[in-house]
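Changelog-linked ticket: S-adenosylmethionine example.
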Amino acid sequence: MGIGGDRGDSSAVRSPARLASASLRAMDSEELQERIGAFASWDYLFEFNGGVRTPARDRGRVNRHAQRRNHFFEPLLALFGGTLQGRRVLDLGCSAGFWALAAIDAGAEFVLGLDLSLEHLEQAELVFAAKHVDPARYRFEQADVLAHEIREEFDVVLCLGLLDHIPKPVELFERMAATGAEALVVDTAISRSRASIFEVSRLYKAADVPGDGLVLIPSRAAMADLARRVDMRCVPLALNVTHWAGMQDYRRRRRLAFICARTLHLEGLAREPAPSTLPWWVKDPRALTSV
Ligand SMILES: C[S@@+](CC[C@H](N)C(=O)[O-])C[C@H]1O[C@@H](n2cnc3c(N)ncnc32)[C@H](O)[C@@H]1O
């Protein structure tokens, strides 16, 4: 379990203003809807009492997060016996707190969410206050995950849509492992190469991140090597997609989630079937027999 109470390197950390959930409780649905509307956009659909909801950007995005839940969050819960009861969860690149809230709903004792974007963190604070989550169970901080010293211990680290936003994957894995976590959940863009490599890529919105936006995208084999380096095993998770809207990158096998663990038994997790070893240009493998 974690050591709690330690707020880490305060010089590198800013927290969004904490909204008193008591004052929100007093707030009527109209006021909450107004606060939601004050943000330029929302990437997630959140629903609150009284029919209040965040404006969903499009149906594909809503479906994407529902499918991602099936892809990596349900397997995470299965690994922990169906509940995160009593677990401490670190959510790196937490954005508006969608997965942090999923962890709280699954029983997590405490969630720390880190993100660079103060606007995303203010959304997370609003969501958690409007959902009346006990403030002792969470904290959101503005921090660069590659610069912020994480001094607390965690049972689970969520690294969702973040590894492909940073230039130092080896360092990120070391930082995640140093939290003592039993399990890391990593959802990332991936290279389709069969070798253990990183593809050099550039972020579409480089202005939002430190540095020049150059990032390293791991292949599946590179993910296994990153995990091995911190004494973990790594399972590429099966995609149980029921609807592909908003899931093009997963469908093209350019994104996948992995669960890495030191001692937990990963054998029960449904794995992604091994990708074909045929070159991409071979449409009909029978054609090869005549070569
Ligand atoms: C693609 S979003 C993923 C959000 C969420 N984890 C998910 O998977 O639904 C990436 C998030 O990581 C944050 N981010 C990017 N680079 C970061 C860094 N170096 N440190 C902390 N947060 C970062 C961005 O602000 C953004 O909220």
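Closing comment: Example verified and attached. The beta strands are 88-92, 110-115, 138-142, 156-160, 183-189, 198-202, 214-218, 233-236, 255-261. Residues 93-95, 98-99, 114-117, 120, 144-146, 160-162, 165-166, 187, 208-209 surround S-adenosylmethionine (CB under 6 Å).
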